Amino acid sequence: MKAITVEPGRSGSMRVEEIDDPVPGEGELLVEGLVLGVCGTDRELNAGDYGWAPEGADRLVIGHESLGRVISAPEGSEFQEGDLIVGVVRRPDPEPCQACAHGDFDMCRNGDYRERGIKEIHGFGSQRWVVDQRFAVKVDPELGHGGALLEPASVVAKAWDQVEQVGARAWFGPATAVVVGAGPIGLLASLIGVQKGLDVHVVDRVEEGLKPDLIAQLGATYHSADVGEVLDRVRPDVVIETTGAEPVLAAVLARTRPYAIVCLLGMGVTREPSSVPLASTGRDMVLNNAVLLGSVNANVRHWEMAAEALAAADKSWLGSLITRTVPLSDLGDAFEPQEDDIKVIVDLQA
Asked: Is residue 287 situated within a structural domain?
């Protein structure tokens, strides 16, 4: 069978190669890989900036935004042949820390976790793969290829869960949220915010086209104005920041309001240095009982939350987030960004 592999640490090493078909072990599902979502992490893997091969291997099968169809399942499993599923990305470390031991492996304390297609475990970028049924999540068949959005949606579901848990330290009745950035994460964060009944405002640099249209279809409000101006006008209870851009972070941190919660999801690279007055920013956060938190990855519970959110969403809206489907035979095209890209997926069977 064919698989997408890289040699971690070597730029431009990505290729499609023939590897042995997987054999399911005890408690594992055998899955036909249908499509694979491509994200910034995959581009970093191809650039040699990131990634660890499994012990004893030189190359890593990449791919963590999966979608597959069950070929076979263990007797008595809740899964059966034909089910659409995705595979959870992270695994607890082999000698689990307390968080991993309690199922919160997304909050691993010692950094020895492993991740499919990223860190020490082969990913889902192959025409067949296996997954422990404990780390598989069913996908609503009506989603079709939109099921490949479940991995980024799980990250967003966790972020909202974290916001609500922090908010529960006292009475919490958020009404308004600002989502900064309208990439896949920002759009899915907006979807879940709207599903929660919030007045959602989205800030992005694009002035027209698909992104503003998608936000309007959600019933949210799109802004291409300066993020500081939007925050001053909207005065949100919750901010979900997905860009990681330093000037944007500075603007967000300078505008906390009483009991505000700011959740950071973006991991940007410093290109436009800015000066953040840390003392006054800290003072404002203290006086406002504000919270700044970072969130990454997700555990099984968040994947299940994400599956529910996508199942409840408008299927045509979700389908619009997938702007290109590239056959495996033309894999390089998936890694060449185009102006209107939101989410690009690879058809593993084409």
From this structure: yes
Range of the domain at 79: 2-138+318-347
Q: Is 132 exposed, middle or buried (0-12, 13-18, 19+ CB in 10 A)?
A: middle
The pLDDT, as a whole number, for residue 98 is 95
Angstrom CA distances, 7 to 13, 15, 53, 235, stand at: 6, 9, 8, 47
234 and 164 within one domain: yes
In whole angstroms, give the CA distance from residue 147 to residue 118: 20
Rounded-to-integer distance, Cα 277 and Cα 300, Å: 39
Structural domain total, the chain: 2
Output the domain CATH number for residue 189.
3.40.50.720
Q: Judge contact between 315 and 143, C-beta under 8 A.
A: yes
| 118 neighbors 66 (Cβ within 8 angstroms) | no
pLDDT digit string, tens, across residues 33-55: 999 999 999 999 999 998 999 99
Same domain, 16 and 122: yes
Give the pLDDT confidence of 4-31 residue by residue, as tens digits: 999 999 999 999 999 999 999 999 999 9
